[in-house]
Each structure stands twice: as C-alpha cells, then as structure tokens.
Amino acid sequence: MKRRTAIQQILILAGGVVLMPSCLKSSGKASIKLEHLDVSLEQENLLADIAETILPKTDTPGAKDLKLHLYVLKMVDDCHPEKDRKAFVQGLDSFQDYCTEKMGAAFARLSAADRERALSSISSEHTGLPVHVKDFFKIMKARCIDGYLNSEYVMSKLVVWELIPGRYNGYFPVKTRTTNG
Fold first, then answer.
1. Which of 33, 69, 84, 113 could bond 80 through an S-S bridge, CB–CB 3.0 to 4.6 Å?
2. Which residue range forms the structural domain that includes residue 59?
3. For residue 140, how many C-alpha atoms fall within 13 Å in the half-sphere facing its CB?
4. Peptide bond just before 21 cis, omega within 30 deg
5. Residue 92, H or E segment
6. What's the pLDDT at 47?
7. How far is C-alpha 112 from the chain's CA centre?
8. Structural domain includes residue 10
9. Total number of domains in the chain
C-alpha cells in the first residue's frame, strides 16, 4: 500500500515538473518565438499601433486584425541581416523617445491624426532625425505593406485570380469579314 502511494506521489511530482516551465513563462516577452530579436510585449504593442496607423481598419481589416506586427517581427528576425536587425531594434527603442520629443506624448497616447502626423514627419524629415528611426520606419512600412498584400484576406477576398488564358466562352459573337471581289 505504501508503495502505491509513493508511486502516485512521484507521478504527480513528475507531472508538476513537466508543467512548471509553462507556468513560469515571462509575460513580458513577445507573443511569438524569435531567434535573433529580443522584443518585449510593450514593444510588440507599439509595433501593432504603428502598423495600424500605416494600414488602418476601414471596410477592410486593418493591420491589427491581420496581425501584421507579428509578420514584421518574424520577417525581420528570419530574413534580414544582422545589421538590419540591430538598426530595427535600435530604431524601435529610439522611436518612442522621438515621438515624445516631437509630439509631446508617447505614441500609444496620441490621437489617430497625431499618429499619422508623426509617421509622415518621419518619412519626410531629412535632418534632426535619428538614423535608426528612419531605418526602422523604412523596414516597418515595407514589411507591413508586404504582409498586407500577401495576407490570406487580400489573396482570397480582394484579389480575384483567373487562370490564363481565361474562361472559355463558346457563345462569344464573332464577326465575319467580307471581301469584295
């Protein structure tokens, strides 16, 4: 009888040890697994706000609905060289400071019009702008647009594909030519 109790307790302890890593997961990390980037949850939310400002929700889903910020993170992590990844992370860190200095508040607290104004000033300003912020925004904007155009929603709902050479229409009217003489 004591042997059974000991075995039960060992199995319960082993199950607890197996489940413990999932309970101790840091809640401040990004929601997807990244190999090279170290992005916090706060930075991920900032990226989501920036992506939503670039591609807002209208009658079509916006960037947050399509989770384009996660696409951007994964593409930068997997496809960009080390130099671009460093510039992206440094630009992300500097972006919040730039917005606070230029607009007077953190990006998340700005109104939609102020957010658009902040991003347009980054894309048009040539002097007085940290280099990493410009590089960060260039990568962010390009990857957001790329992710949107390749999203399942756009490819299945907005773009109507027709195989070449097209449909066969057996009832298409054909005009005949008449030749004189």
1. 84
2. 35-158
3. 29
4. no
5. helix 82-103
6. 95
7. 19
8. no
9. 1
